[in-house]
Amino acid sequence: MDLRDYLRIFHKNWILIALCALVGVAVAAVFSLMATPKYKAETELYVSVRAGDTAATTDLVQGTSFARQAVTSYVSVVDSASVLDRVIKELKLDTTPGALAAKVSAESPLNTVLIDITVTDDDPQRAADIANSVGKNTSYIVTNKLENAQGGASLVNVQTIQPATTPTRPSSPNVPINVLLGLLVGLGVGILASFLRSILDTRIHNAHDIEQVTDRPILGAVSFDPSAKKRPLIVHADPRNPRAESFRSLRTNLQFVNIGGPRSYVITSSVPGEGKSTTAANLAISLAETGARVALIDGDLRLPKVAEYMGIEGAVGLTDVLIGRAELTDVLQKWGRGQLYVLPAGAIPPNPSELLGSAVMANLINDLTSEFDFVLVDAPPLLLVTDAAVISKLTGGAILAAASGRTKKNELAAAVRALDHIDSRLVGVVVTMLPVKGPDSYGYGVYGYGVQNEIVDDEVSDHRVRRAAQA
Known about the structure:
By secondary structure, the protein is α/β, with parallel strands linked by helices. The protein has three domains: 3-35 and 173-200, no CATH class; 39-162, EIF_2_alpha (Alpha-Beta Plaits); 207-445 and 454-470, 3-Layer(aba) Sandwich (Rossmann fold), CATH 3.40.50. Helix content is 46%, strand content 16%. The strands form two sheets. An eight-stranded mixed beta sheet has the order 5-12-11-6-10-7-9-8, with helices on both faces. α4 (81-91) crosses α6. This is non-specific protein-tyrosine kinase. Residues 1-91 form the Polysaccharide chain length determinant N-terminal domain. The chain crosses the membrane at residues 14-35, 175-196. It is found in: Cell inner membrane.
């Protein structure tokens, strides 16, 4: 994956990432609001060693050194039972030394004779009282119990140099920090979920996904149009529509992929619903716009759609020619003002694969290829039946339609393998149903000058199709 792949994942899943971040912030805020506030009170003790009036400088240095060594032991005395028992009795607390020890912590800064005592409690005044009492009783235990040699005066002196005051603000929960952590955790979860979603998503979305399956070129890209079923012949119904221009780009690319070879192609897909029939019809119309002689054959003898899309009578067609019941010149219908001729499927036979793989079909393709500049055959999906694979051996190659967000990578790979196994040529791939917005969208330039987003009424489009079919 390169930088563009990461950016595409972020762009595609930004709503998920933002939602996870908001959830993280909300959870952190609710937790902070529901948590019981805790207050910290701190006091500081100073440990020293007494020396007599006649003490030498060496004695003072030795006393200070002893205090530094002993202070680490005195830290452990702070939360001992002997100290906390006296604190509980003094303040009349309803608790045990073990429970109180969980609220008391002590430490000594490095190379000092100081002891910092911190008490955490949900009552600010009680926290200060406990801290001062702990400091006072630690001093008592050290000087009167631990360092009182033979009942005399203790040489160690522990005194409070910073008494605890009542805290005015809670130490926890720290709402800003919690919200920031919630935001970071939410972003992390959202990004992780986005990558998992991208890894687990096996559908084709863009050119990069297709390049992972096959090295054949991408001949064209057609955006998704929710009204495609109502006006499938977009090149004829709305010539200035960006989708119409995309079929013209497909036409241009196709004119250069098989220079010198037979310009007959079977147009198919991996599975149903990928737009192969509309691609074949619109490509045929766009080729005819250049003045080329084009023959469009409906080779889908199982679920024919070309006659319906082109607005012509389809009761008699390819099937009748293959079984010898009709002549090609009698059923080949001229469409539009150009040199486009359509051969509908005719009646649905019980043995489509046998008819399409027959010598008669091969002769028919050869005759049309010699007479027309382009021959396009709309065939059934490759993974359902063998019809398209059979026809591809009779033509110059196959063009695969792959629907963005619908076709799975393994389906496209299986379709490519099906063609490779019979040594059939895959001319290229046409990506259909690309989203018009988002990281997987396909950018279209404005066709023509001025505002070209013409809205064609469905009835007008149907009328144009019928008129072109009758011309």
